[in-house]
Design goal:
The structure is a single chain. The chain has 96 residues and is mostly helical. The protein has one domain. 31% of the residues lie in helices and 6% in strands. The longest helix has 16 residues. InterPro entries: Excalibur_Ca-bd_domain.
């Protein structure tokens, strides 16, 4: 075994042992439909927006810190028998 081969083998073993080569990808939670805003707020406390540019329509303090997920939004507003975005501002079940 040459010095170059030995160095490559040791370096490969170190990278593999420390998990630098290919760490497992974190699975994103699957989008699902919720029956009520209470059920959705248990998972998303501030609500879910269709995009990051969505703005809360309110006369008081606007809601901030909502999650952004087009898939979750579409399943809970616009799907048959689903209208959890009652004020049509692009945020379902917003809550302060």
């Amino acid at each position: 075994m040459t010095a170059r081969t030995r160095t490559a083998a040791v370096l490969g073993g170190v990278l593999l042992a420390t998990g630098v080569v290919a760490p497992p990808a974190a699975a994103a939670p699957a989008a699902r439909a919720y029956a009520t805003c209470s059920a959705l707020n248990a998972v998303y406390p501030r609500g879910v927006a269709v995009s990051s540019s969505s703005r809360d329509r309110t006369t008081g303090t606007p809601v901030r810190g909502f999650a952004v997920s087009r898939a979750v939004y579409q399943l809970n507003d616009g799907a048959p028998n689903r209208d959890l975005d009652r004020d049509d501002d692009g945020i379902v079940c917003e809550r302060r």
